[in-house]
Write a structure and sequence with these properties.
6 helices; two-stranded antiparallel ribbon; 152 residues; mainly alpha
């Protein structure tokens, strides 16, 4: 087996493991809002105010669907619409303090869930995860850049 074949096999195995872990983690999160709503709110908290059309593209939904989603989150007090100082014709969606607090709480719950699981690993397994941290962080950055595109 060539190095290239071995690397492709390792990439596939790592990808499968990460995907399985991510989907299982997503299923364990509270169901107090849809995954699209939670993802949209997290995007806003992470990247700052966005146009509805940008949010729709980032989250992979239609603009009318995003408009409806933003309206529901606005009525719930999680986001607000503000004018864009650079272009008064544009309206930006921003997280409210309640929305930002929701994202922080949900994030912390996810971190704690993984902490509990990591606590069940052997010392060698924890060391392997620590050694993999730089690569995992870089992988998250690459995914974020690919998914969200440039901030506007």
């Amino acid at each position: 087996m060539s190095r290239q074949d071995a690397a492709a096999g390792a990439s596939a195995a790592i990808g499968a493991a990460l995907y399985s872990l991510a989907t299982r983690a997503a299923r364990r999160l509270p169901r107090d809002m849809s995954l699209t709503s939670a993802a949209t709110l997290a995007t806003l908290a992470r990247t700052g105010p966005r146009r509805i059309t940008d949010l729709a593209a980032v989250e992979g939904v239609t603009q009318p669907a995003m408009t409806a989603l933003v309206r529901v989150m606005e009525e719930s007090g999680l986001v607000e619409r503000r004018g864009d100082a650079a272009d008064r014709r544009v309206t930006l969606v921003c997280p409210t303090e309640a929305g930002a607090a929701y994202v922080r709480t949900r994030h912390q719950a996810g971190v704690h869930a993984f902490e509990r699981l990591i606590g069940e690993l052997t010392g060698d397994e924890v060391e392997a995860l620590v050694a993999a941290l730089p690569a995992l962080k870089h992988l998250a950055e690459l995914e974020s850049q690919d998914r969200e595109g440039p901030k506007r």
